[in-house]
Amino acid sequence: MKQGVVYILECSNGSFYTGVTNNLEERLNLHQRGLASKFTAGHRPVKLVWNSDEMNIDDTILLEKQIKGW
Question: Measured at the alpha carbon of residue 62, what is the angle toward residues 19 and 12, in degrees to the nearest 5?
Fold first, then answer.
């Protein structure tokens, strides 16, 4: 089964961004370069403030939704 992590970034304006990825290092690099999301592209630099342990991708998506309050 595919694995992933949930992560939370703090943006330069003090806001937070929550996402899911199967390669955290690569995804953080994309966020820092402005290539991962429109939101973080406009609020760089970003700082990783939390990430989950690796878990199956279905569980990461559920956790992301819980964090976002969906």
Answer: 20
